[in-house]
Amino acid sequence: MMGKKLFLLAAILSVALVVPAFAAVENIKVSGDITSQGILRDLSMGDDLKLNTIMDAEAALATQTRLRLDADLTENVSAVVRLINERLWGTEDEQDTEIDLDLAYVEMKEFLYQPLSLTVGRQLLRYGNGLIVGDPDTNQTAVAKVPTLMRDLSMRKSFDAIKAVLDFSPFTYDMIYAKIREGTTWIGDDSTLFGVNAAYQWGSFNGITEGYFFGAHNNKDGNNNLVTTQVNENQATTYVIGGRIQFDPIEKLMLGLEGAYQFGDVLTPMLSDGSTPVDDDLAASPSEYRHLSAFAIQAAAEYKLMTKYDPKIGIRYSYLSGDDDNNLDDEGDFTGWDPMFEDQTAGEIINILFPNTNSSTAMIYGSIMPREDITLGLAYINTRLAQNYIYLNTYSSARGPAIANAYRVNRDDKLLGSEIDAYALYDYTEDVQIKLTGAWFMPGSNFFEDHNNDIAYSLRAGLAVNF
């Protein structure tokens, strides 16, 4: 009899424990996306037998896969996990087929105080147009696990971070702290990001005003390389303060403006004559710390005609200050803009070849919809140096940590080149899209020497599905 009672009690306890488990499972949402595409690129811009790092045309098929789980644990507590794999077809080693952690965070709303929410873990951080914060390694490249050919196309944008949000609608205040790199030598070799973003949503004109302050410790040197070994009193720091405004003065027109100023200390490798090199091949000891004083201005306008085919046209302009590597100002400031953790693309090939600094870039773009399921787009981009590269004989692109193209260039011209980007997008269904993309870069004939002034191109055809 006692055995039956114990069995009954065990059964009741089992049901009591299992029911909540089933309830939790029922609150989990599964979603994801798969993008497969063929890529054909030639960034050599001609042949130069003197430089053996030029990459010839490359062709490959690739797939990017993401699987996401959203779990609502209680009314105010939720958790998100997303896995990712980015690989070229025909590669089967551990690096190419392993599944990586893309998102993993917990969000707690009304945390201790009703307007306060707290998000802890690997999460997306992006503010404004992505000028300062959007991608932990910038959207020009990605971690070594991503194949070199597609590092600029990587979908990995997450930060290991803590984010606190105070929502006093229409005012919102975001406070963030992120660990970009955990060094293993000593406490001072970490790379961190911190800051606050204050936003005000207008009650009309679809407007928003933002002001922000961000800082990064042990971030980049003057060559845009991650600094990993320093001493406490000389730790590289970048601070940036800025603001953004965007609104629609009339229904068809959007206007936007953003400006920012950077200060702090940056480690700049020095040449034997005391000037600052801009190419890794020219870098030499000793190095020194210089005060950072740089600025950025970006403006945009877009007009939608609201007629047949839904045509729209837009213009964008970006100025990111540079350093001339020779003529320092009276205080010896380094005036080159630090890209920090930007997530911007002026043009597909421009984004591969040139870092988001020392540039004056103008873009005009437009699109039409000849059918409700087809979109055609075209953009023209012109990019110039903000300051001449006085001591530059060769230029190495920052294509990724493994491979960089090297080109013969002249020192006395600012026109880097022009690019034409075009795309055709077909919405096969609500969840499936087919896209053709082409980019052609025409190098500046006076900046790039005859060896390397042929047209570079990138062609991609892809299929994407969301579920």
Number of β-strand runs = 20
Helix content: under 10%
CATH topology: Porin
Q: Could you name the ranges where pLDDT drops below 50 across 5 or more consecutive residues?
A: 1-23, 271-286, 326-330, 399-403
CATH class: Mainly Beta
> What is the CATH architecture assignment?
Beta Barrel
Structural class: mainly beta
Distance between the termini: 54 Å
Q: Domains counted in the coordinates: how many?
A: 1
What can be said about the biggest beta sheet?
18 strands, antiparallel, barrel
Shape annotation: globular
Order of helices and strands: HEEEHEEEEEEEEEEHEEEEEEE
Q: Helical stretch count?
A: 3
The radius of gyration computed from the alpha-carbon positions, rounded to a whole number of angstroms, is: 25 Å
Mean pLDDT: 84
Task: Report the portion of residues in β strands.
Answer: over 45%
Secondary structure elements and their pairing?
Blueprint: H1 2-26, E1 28-42, E2 58-72, E3 77-88, H2 94-97, E4 100-108, E5 116-124, E6 158-168, E7 171-181, E8 191-201, E9 208-217, E10 237-250, E11 253-269, E12 287-304, E13 312-320, H3 348-353, E14 359-371, E15 374-385, E16 394-396, E17 406-408, E18 415-427, E19 432-443, E20 456-466
Antiparallel strand pairs: 1-2, 1-20, 2-3, 3-4, 4-5, 5-6, 6-7, 7-8, 8-9, 9-10, 10-11, 11-12, 12-13, 13-14, 14-15, 15-18, 16-17, 18-19, 19-20
